[in-house]
Amino acid sequence: MPTTTAGILQFSQPIYKITESGEWLTEQVQVLRKDGATGNVSVKVTAKTETATVGKDIDKINQVLTWVDGDVTPKFVNIKPIQDMYTEGDEFLTLSLSSIKGAKYAPVKTAQLVIYDQALPVTVLQASAIKDSDIISIYNSVPGNNTGVKFGDFKNWLYQEIIASLPTTSTTPTPTPPAGSWVQVAGEGGAFTVGESQHVRYGRNNTWIEKTVSGSGTCDVAFFGSDPLYGVVKVCEVFIPSTPAPTPTPTLFDKSYQLNMATMLANGLSILANNVTAGIDSLGEHLSFVKRSSSLTIKGIEENFNSDFAIEIKLAIDPQYSNIMGVEPDGLLNLRPDGSNWCFDVGVGQNNVITIPNSVSGINSPDTIKIIRSNNVVTLDVNGVLASKPVTQTYNTANGLVIGNFQSFDGKLYGLKIFTW
Fold first, then answer.
1. What is the pTM of this model?
2. Poorest-pLDDT segment among 76-85, 271-280, 338-347, 358-367
3. In this structure, what is the dihedral angle of CA atoms 241, 243, 249, 254, given to the nearest 10 degrees?
């Protein structure tokens, strides 16, 4: 049994700060043993996502610190940020003490870790010696953390940066639109209709021509005046500015609605909700589901589930109930928990299940799950951890995509985005 003479274990300060390159702006994370030194003691240090993602923005933190009898030396925690070339803003993690043995906790068992955004510098390259298909590895200061990009993609990005920096004399620059998202409205050669004075762009990947449009237009070179990416099939996207959503009044949905999300409104999807209640808590706006009684049916994109699509869903669930989402009436492309593992069925049979081990956070902590079908491969991404399998069959999607299919689940849906192309 722990005694006061064994000591109290606590973080040395409430907030620690580190850059993406691993440079400490405060002292390093350390745990102190205070008010006693009798016996052997230990404690585990773990990290919980706030805005930073473990495995994407920082290496996993799961470290046991130990002290022998008489030892009061501070113990340091290994922290390894992952540096990238994108501007993301500062990101946050919560550090926690758990599984203590021999000692006692201090009144506060947590501390906050702030990762200061620090984009990688661009290195001058001899472009004439590199082919568009070559892979360029970008390394940060922590050995082993590197990612690759195609040089052709990097070259297109660099070209756009150079063009954007050149002074203009004959035209007035288009004002920067407010925060929001780009939503596809038409494919190459297709017609589209937008509202008054909306920003529409024509292109693909990182290369676009932008134009202010009111009413109807055509997704082609003639309408936009030039070809931004010769020899590539392009699309048109409209910019949807972000607007603060009003605080919802909890309401029982019992008939067909269009969900108030920009991507769904733009794609004309219809929503049928059954025993789903809207609300708001400390984690944000959500829809609450009840096991064996709640469902949310999304119609209007049934034919796209046998081509390329992406679904991003953010939810917190009681993992004892399965079948979170699926296409109907097959019940395939089914998202479900299996104990502590998120699983996704891409077809019939055990060999057609994608599993991300130990990924279900539970009813009090949302998971962000992305499901992507591209070139006949389905990829499952849970909080930045990925796995994939080939698609082995087509699906009967007559009744659309259903959240809460079969037995439904206890939990809250904090976000849902559907993309097709």
1. 0.39
2. 271-280
3. -10
* C-alpha separations of 365 from 18, 48, 360, 416 in Å: 25, 9, 9, 16
Which has more confidence, 59 or 352? Answer: 59
Question: For residue 225, is it left (φ>0), alpha (ψ between -120 and 50) or beta?
Answer: left
Q: 293 with 381, same domain? A: yes
**Same domain, residue pair 92 and 197:** no
Same domain flag for 257 and 333: yes
293 and 415 both lie in a single domain: yes
Residues 145 and 272 in one domain: no
Task: Sort 89 into a burial class: Cβ within 10 Å, 0-12 / 13-18 / 19+.
Answer: exposed
SS3 66: strand
Residue type, 255: K
Q: Please, what sign has the CA dihedral across residues 220, 226, 230, 234?
A: negative
Q: Provide the 8-state DSSP code for 127.
A: G
Stretch 197-217: mean pLDDT = 92
Q: What sign has the CA pseudo-torsion 127, 129, 134, 137?
A: negative
Note down the domain range covering 235: 180-241
Residue 183's nearest CA partner among 257, 242, 221, 236 is 236
The strand pairing partners of 201, in sequence order, are 210, 237
Stronger pLDDT, 216 or 57, i.e. the higher one: 216
Domain tally, the chain: 4
For the chain, what percent of residues have pLDDT higher than 70?
74
For position 98, which CATH number holds? 2.60.40.2030
Residue 175 domain-assigned (yes or no): no
> What is d(CA 22, CA 12) in angstroms, rounded to the nearest whole number?
19
Establish if 354 belongs to a structural domain.
yes
User: Residue 408 in contact with residue 289, Cβ under 8 Å?
Assistant: yes
d(CA 37, CA 67) in angstroms, rounded, equals: 9
Q: Is residue 206 part of a domain?
A: yes
- 10 or 166: whose pLDDT is higher? 10
More confident residue, 378 or 211: 211
